[in-house]
Each structure stands twice: as structure tokens, then as C-alpha cells.
Write a structure and sequence with these properties.
This protein is α/β, with parallel strands linked by helices. It is 57% helix and 11% strand. The chain has 17 helices and 8 strands. It has helices at residues 8-11, 27-43, 58-67, 89-100, 117-120, 123-131, 145-155, 162-172, 176-189, 197-203, 212-221, 224-236, 241-263, 268-274, 282-291, 294-311, 319-331; strands spanning 2-3, 19-24, 46-52, 75-81, 106-112, 133-137, 158-159, 193-194. The strands form 2 sheets. A 6-stranded parallel beta sheet has the order 1-6-2-5-4-3, sandwiched between helices. Strand 4, helix 4 and strand 5 (106-112) form a beta-alpha-beta unit. Helix 7 crosses helix 8 (162-172), helix 11 (212-221) packs antiparallel against helix 12 (224-236) and helix 11 (212-221) packs across helix 17. The protein is globular, with a radius of gyration of 24 Å.
């Protein structure tokens, strides 16, 4: 069966399914989902836990671990990390066969990043969905964020108005972990009762936890204002500019190669598979490909090389200012070549 995040608590009050698949792109909700399943399993007597997290001979480990008899526990949890396993025809048949004939007193919990629509049409995925539980964890959309904040506050005995929840959501920029941490901080400042606007604004500064990947995605989508805000936060948090440049350079190289392959006649959908661009990020890549030609990306890489020389002390200049110019050029529709030095 399919379950949503909101349906999980009620489901866990019933006997557990023999197999669970949890996949998605929201780390906080994924972690909480997995923790909830583990706690319910432990309460049901599943006291032994085995993890299969590597590619090598994972199928043999799955068979051995599910069929071995433990001297210390009658019920066993097998955790399978699909992020480290190639989901091809062979692995699909193994998972499909197990889903149709699960081992008694064994609970298999599988976790993965968001699986694309092709995988969701596969036989093994359908078998898991029919015999067990599949949960796709979707990110919280901006319009859902205030309600999520209000529910989160309620769990720690705090009351927050819709207006204040909307303000807090605007500060967090969609980062659930950051919002969760701020609510925990507010619960320490005011353990019980209603939060007022002054309390919240005093406790919560404009310190949204942006990360490098948010910077990349925003730049690809052409959200220049947001890109600059994220970059400033990274600078304020003493993020190593080397890490920022590494992420930007890696993305630009991929984009240059994609434009090259497109010019040679490859289809974009084929290239998405080749370069492992997940369904959620495909609109980002499409957007930047519409703005920039292959020659633009090579010019941006030359600009990145200039920043690299600054970091290494081989060229004079303000590193963060130059990174700012670089991300503006990536996110801006009207492309201006870099100035020669």
C-alpha cells in the first residue's frame, strides 16, 4: 500500500507490514519516518538490527541475513540502503522475489533518495507496494510551511499564530531542519503557552540555514536575489569558498557536457539518465540550458578558474565578490562574458 507521511502514525498502531520502502528528498522527514518505523518495530519485538549498505554481494547478504536463525533474538530488522545499490534488472528481480515471499519474523526496511517514475513502474516496486508499504516523502511546499510550523510547535506544547508562523516560514526559506531547530529553541525559552511576535522575532534572526546545494539549484532556476542571499549566508557562516567553487565548477562541467551532447543529437531525457539527474532537479537543468549556450558554460568555467587562482593566492582579488559575480552570471538570462585579466 501507499502511505503518506501524515498517515504513518495511525498505520504504526496496527501490525507492521513485512517490508517498507521509504524514499524522497526531504532529509528531516525521511529521518523521522525511519525512526518512527524503527520504534514501532522495537515495540513489536524486533530487537536485532542488520544493515546492508554496500554494493558488494548485497543480494547474498540479504538472503543470508533474512534466513539465518539468531541465537539472541527471534525477530530481526534488515535495513537496505538503496542509495548504494544499482537498481537494475537483476537487483529488481531479487527485491521482487523477496516481496512476494517475505521471511517470517523479519522486517525489511529500504531507504532511498527520490525514485523516478521509471522505477515506480518496475515490477519490484509494484510488488513492494502490493505486499508491503511504500512511502514517498515529498518536501513541504512554501504554502504548506506555516501549517507545518504550527503543528510542530503544538508537539512541544507551544501555540503560534498563523501570521507568526508565516513570518517564521519566510525566515527559514523552506528548510525544515532549520525551522525545527528554531522551534526547539523557542520551546526552551518559553516551555509552555502561546508565542507572541516579539518573542519569536527576538529569538529568531534572519539566519536561514542555506547550503551549497540550495545555492546551485537557485542559480540554475535563475533566482538571482535568492542566490545572492544564500551566498551571503554561506560567507557569514565562514563556509570555505573552496567548497562553493567546487560545487559550482562540477555543475558547470556537467551542463557544458549536456549542451555538447544535445548539439550532437542526444535527447535530453537520455542525458538526464546518463548524468543521473533526478526527476526533481530536471526542471532546474532545463531552465539553465534554455538561458545558456555551450560556449557560455565554458566561459563560466574560465571564470571559475579565475576564482580558483584567487583562492590559491595566484591572483589578487576578493574571493567572495568574485563568487558573487559568477553566480549572478549563471542565474542571469542575459549572458555577459567575463572580463579578461
Amino acid at each position: 500500500m501507499k502511505l503518506s507521511y501524515a498517515q504513518l502514525a495511525q498505520h504504526l498502531n496496527k501490525p507492521l507490514a513485512p517490508i517498507y520502502l521509504v524514499h524522497g528528498d526531504e532529509p528531516l522527514l525521511i529521518e523521522e519516518t525511519m525512526d518512527a518505523i524503527y520504534k514501532a518495530a522495537e515495540a513489536a519485538g524486533f530487537t536485532e538490527r542488520v544493515s546492508i549498505t554496500t554494493e558488494a554481494d548485497w543480494d547474498k547478504h540479504l538472503y543470508t541475513d533474512t534466513h539465518s536463525i539468531s541465537l539472541f533474538a527471534q525477530k530481526k530488522i534488515i535495513y537496505l540502503n538503496l542509495n548504494h545499490i544499482k537498481l537494475n534488472v537483476g537487483s529488481g528481480k531479487i527485491l521482487e522475489a523477496y516481496a512476494h515471499k517475505p521471511v517470517p519474523d523479519t522486517l525489511v526496511i529500504m531507504h532511498s533518495a527520490k525514485l523516478d517514475s521509471k522505477v515506480e513502474k518496475s515490477n519490484w516496486y509494484k510488488a513492494v507496494e502490493k505486499q508491503g508499504v511504500v512511502m514517498t516523502i515529498w518536501p513541504i511546499s512554501p504554502d504548506q510551511m506555516p501549517a507545518w510550523i504550527m503543528q510542530r510547535a503544538k508537539k512541544v506544547n507551544l501555540t503560534i499564530s498563523k501570521q507568526d508562523a508565516e513570518w517564521l516560514a519566510s525566515q527559514m526559506e523552506g528548510h525544515l531542519l532549520a525551522a525545527s531547530q528554531e522551534i526547539e529553541k523557542l520551546s526552551l525559552l518559553q516551555p509552555n503557552g502561546a508565542l507572541n511576535n516579539q518573542t519569536i522575532q527576538t529569538a529568531v534572526t534572519d539566519n536561514a540555514r542555506f547550503d551549497i546545494f540550495s545555492l546551485i539549484d537557485s542559480a540554475l532556476l535563475g533566482k538571482t536575489h535568492r542566490v545572492l542571499r544564500i551566498l551571503q549566508n554561506l560567507n557569514d557562516e565562514d563556509t570555505e569558498p573552496t567548497l562553493v567553487l567546487w560545487a559550482l565548477t562540477r555543475e558547470l562541467r556537467t551542463l557544458a557536457e549536456i549542451q555538447k551532447k544535445l548539439a550532437e543529437g542526444s535527447s535530453l531525457n537520455t542525458l538526464f539518465t546518463t548524468f543521473r539527474i533526478w526527476e526533481k532537479r530536471q526542471p532546474h537543468v532545463k531552465a539553465v540550458l534554455q538561458r545558456h549556450k555551450q560556449s557560455d558554460f565554458w566561459d563560466l568555467l574560465l571564470h571559475a578558474a579565475k576564482v580558483d587562482r584567487m583562492i590559491k593566492g595566484a591572483e589578487i582579488g576578493n574571493i567572495w565578490d568574485e563568487l558573487q559575480v559568477l553566480v549572478i552570471r549563471i542565474s542571469t538570462k542575459t549572458f555577459m562574458p567575463a572580463k579578461s585579466t
